[in-house]
Amino acid sequence: MKHKISSLIALIYISSLPLILADSARPPFACDSSHPQTKSYPFCNTSFSINQRVQDIISRLTLDEKISQLVIDAPAIPRLGIPYYEWWSEALHGVVYFSNYNTGINFKTIHASTSFPQVILTAASFDAHLWYRIGQAIGKEARAIYNAGEATGLSFWAPNINIFRDPRWGRGQETPGEDPVVTGKYAISFVRGVQGDTFEGGKLGEHLQASACCKHFTAYDVDNWKGVNRFVYDAKVSLQDLADTFNPPFRSCIREGKASGIMCAYNRVNGVPNCADYNLLSKTARGQWGFNGYITSDCDAVSIIYEKQGYAKSPEDAVAAVLKAGMDVNCGTYLKNYTKSAVKNRRLPVSEIDRALHNLFSVRMRLGFFNGNPVNQPYGKIGRPQICSQEHQNLAVEAARNGIVLLKNTNKLLPFSKAKTTSLAVIGPNANASEILLGNYYGPSCKIVTPLQGLQNYVKDIKYHPGCNAVNCSYAFTGQAVKVAKRAEYVVLVMGLDQTQEREELDRVDLVLPPKQQKLISTVARASKNPVVLVLLSGGPIDITFAKYDKHIGSILWAGYPGEAGGQALTEIIFGDHNPGGRLPVTWYPQSFVKVPMTDMRMRPSSSYPGRTYRFYQGPKVFEFGYGLSYSNYSYEFLPVAQNKVYLNNQLNSPEIELEKSNAFKYIPVSELRTELCDKRIPVTVRAQNHGDLAGKHPLLLFVRREKASNGRPVKQLIGFQSVILNAGERADVEFELSPCEHLSTANEEGLMVIEEGSHFLSIGERESEITVVL
Question: Hey, what CATH class is 634-773 in?
């Protein structure tokens, strides 16, 4: 996504305009009340609707000025007092400043922002309110940076809500995992936080704290695998898989999250480039889901439609295709270079340009760029103290703590005793490497605590050795590492992956650790006085079967890429100041899974194909989706359900509708059911109890399954999750809400959501409760 489109000329030009920008510490805005022209412009009159004000701006622009605004580095329009605007900024897990790229964030006197854990680890907390609070903190820091005069845009291209379909995907680390319900809920929570809505939603109004953009729409999860790259890849996706896997997170992001931005992806889906797909952008996103915002291309995604994919016959055809499809702004230069000729050649009506400009200026107005001095606006009091505030840094620690997953703890090796642990060896290439903790899409952090630094705060006698020359471990210092291990009472190995192994534009070809790294782990473990602790940093899953069954490896912790406070959070878990409760948001597959082509997009299994993700995969697993241990044991119990039968025979919109059959099961399309049923919520209460000696925060995952996972049905499907904090011995009743239309339906081959008759089983842990659908 990173690009090198220069806006230097525009920036120099607008910096001298008193109407737009008085000094370097003042944020850019239009409609300055001190300027005499402001009163004469209806677009500056806040008593008019945004629609009226935007129409006024568009009516005043020449064709050249209109075209100039269709790219992400939108130049100033001095005669109207409209400042330069940069549409591209990043905030995946913290506001990002790139020193080598021109984005909307331009640090000068500000030097850092809070860096939260990479999204895949935050997702492991299964805590939607935590996700909201992270989004809220990011939105506040973004607004504070703008108010300080160090931002030329407030539109952030996050979150990444693609499904982590294949464990080899280099960008899976950016996502909330493989489940569409988790991913959709993450999108809702994060977007509401960033944009200034409440956690429950519905209070946003027209003012945006910052703009969130859900990406990459749709079915994008191949970057560069064995010569197949994202620019030319044509994802062959069934209507069934689009309906219940790839598109639901975007529907949630739009309908419930009210995101003000969407990014269309590079790839094609069934032959059609996403950015040129009218059915996807206009008919589905805007028409069916009610999207109200702007749609940007990924960077250079318009040019590749002609240059790499051959879908368009000329640059002008590519420009016409994306604007007619409903895209609004181009990260790249194609719309700047070829829109005018497309208009002259009558391939594109000016009305399509005006439509795009309406969406773009509407978002800028909602951000307050046309309301005069930002100090006097709703978010004008958010200042520098919000950036790297203690509250936000504490939240970064909390997020890392709650995401880290305990995968193994033989004979309760962990937690270590703070009083009795006399010496520690810390070994591994990830033990003291600060940037590795941040994953990708990060900027300067408030502070960074590495695992080694965190452990040094607990144990005085610590010996450290990297063990390898780098994470790829092309050379291992095995002999030296063994000597260090032998001298210590306990050993913590901090291993795993980094961005040289998995990242944007780099998918993995294996699921195992680098060979010499794995050999180092086993050798050090055998040489140590006591079973060792293995800590893994990674975004994607790793086949660590060797460690799972090695008696010399007593405990395993997966810490994702835990952000600026990762070392502190990890140490608190190792020494028992925090009881781990994270649960895996993805399935961990064995190495044998690499036989499955990454480009096979099918979710559902066949006779020679195992399927994908916990919902459909039929094959061996290293660890299951939702797996995670604790220092406590928890039990669950379903309390009696007030309604265990759902009657649909009297809930049809039209009594003439005939029930259809699928493999002997009758079913009804959800679209044919009355609104009253789909609005209905059936309470389901689960009693959870902590049987351990430590208090703990514990995520409860509620699934539903059919009696048989045949005919394309999922093996099981997550329908709800909540976190509960329980003291030692404490129990609590946790209430879920079951929506028959949402939670008991599945997609059929035509992509329609249907509800089948018969038994549906709610499950949590080993407990189940039956709900029967009667037609």
Answer: mainly beta
